[in-house]
Write a structure and sequence with these properties.
By secondary structure, the chain is of the alpha/beta class. It is built from eleven helices and 13 strands. The chain folds into two domains: 203 residues, 3-Layer(aba) Sandwich (Rossmann fold); 89 residues, UDP-galactose 4-epimerase, domain 1 (Alpha-Beta Complex).
Length: 323
């Protein structure tokens, strides 16, 4: 039986990955912060269905020794480093926290793996935000990084740290450059979940509007449950490498609104209020992923299409309100 350790197990990707690995017979351990155990109803709800089947450890990824002790104890075969400050903020409010967590945290995970169990394979969660103002579209593994947010900068640093440990210390370490991936487990601060949850509230008369920025902004959106399969596949290869994971299809926020409101038989135009406070700088080149390498080498391709993803999220939030 293989053993896996997941940092960020309580998040969207971590919960889907934990379920997937349990289904493959893994023993699954996860790192959580102490505040999560103090408030499990709000912070661990994504793990409710599998809580009895995973082992949780309290740790702070900004502390090398905290991670080292756990790695030395459980000696996992695979480590999935998903924990990060993941909301892309274009203000300066959280830049210090983002830098400390995403760069120092990644460095601590890599260093403690090297010292405690160098045979363990590592997956690092990169992001399409690393491309930022990209020079071309679609983007693949050879596209130059040009991040335009603190989050993107921190992920580029994590990517290079991961590659450095692979090259310098022969650590089996891979980076997945994942484009936007959503699900009913997405945080409410993300626009997709903001929309799906608001649609559910409008259906039940609990709200009458959604305030949004540029609804013609486009992204390459996929389903988180599909993307964790690619994470696992990367660590099953003979040699470590980096992969773009994406659908290769672009959709706008307007598309999301049309499908979502269509699910409850309403016209989105009657409920949307454009708010300049939610506008972000327009991308000169659209972010769109080319996952040809993952398809060829990992035999991976997304299974859930955009329309089904939107409907899934809206129906889930409707069911949540019914309960």
């Amino acid at each position: 039986m293989k053993t896996a350790l997941i940092t960020g197990i309580s998040g969207q990707d971590g919960s889907y990955l934990a379920e997937y690995l349990l289904g493959k017979g893994y023993k699954v351990h996860g790192l959580v912060r102490n505040v999560a155990l103090e408030d499990p109803d709000h912070r661990l709800w994504r793990l409710n269905a599998i809580m009895k089947n995973v082992v949780l450890h309290v740790a702070n990824i900004e502390s090398y020794y905290s991670i080292f002790k756990i790695l030395q104890k459980i000696r996992p075969d695979e480590c999935y480093h998903l924990a990060s400050e993941s909301f892309v903020s274009y203000s300066f409010e959280s830049e210090y926290s983002t830098i400390n967590t995403n760069i120092n945290g990644t460095h601590n995970v890599l260093s403690s793996l090297r010292d405690a169990c160098p045979e363990c394979k590592l997956y690092f969660a990169g992001s399409s935000e690393m491309f930022g103002n990209a020079e071309k579209s679609p983007q693949n593994e050879l596209t130059k990084f040009n991040p335009r947010s603190i989050y993107g900068i921190s992920k580029v640093a994590g990517y290079h740290l991961t590659k450095n440990y692979r090259d310098q210390y022969d650590l089996f370490s891979c980076s997945g450059i994942l484009f936007n991936h959503e699900s009913p487990r997405r945080g409410f601060e993300f626009v997709t979940r903001k929309i799906s949850s608001s649609i559910a509230q409008i259906k039940f008369g609990m709200s009458n509007e959604i305030r949004l920025g540029n609804i013609d902004s486009k992204r390459d959106w996929g389903f988180s449950g599909d993307y964790v399969i690619a994470m696992h596949a990367m660590l099953q290869q003979d040699k470590p490498d980096d992969y773009v994971v994406a659908t290769g299809k672009s959709h706008s926020v307007r598309d999301f609104l049309e499908i979502g409101f269509g699910e409850i038989g309403l016209n989105y135009q009657d409920y949307i209020k454009i708010d300049q406070n939610f506008y972000r700088p327009t991308e000169k080149v659209k972010l769109l992923g080319d996952a040809s390498k993952a398809k060829k080498r990992l035999n991976w391709s997304p299974k859930v299409n955009f329309e089904d993803l939107v409907v899934m999220m809206v129906r889930s939030d409707i069911d949540n309100l019914k309960k």
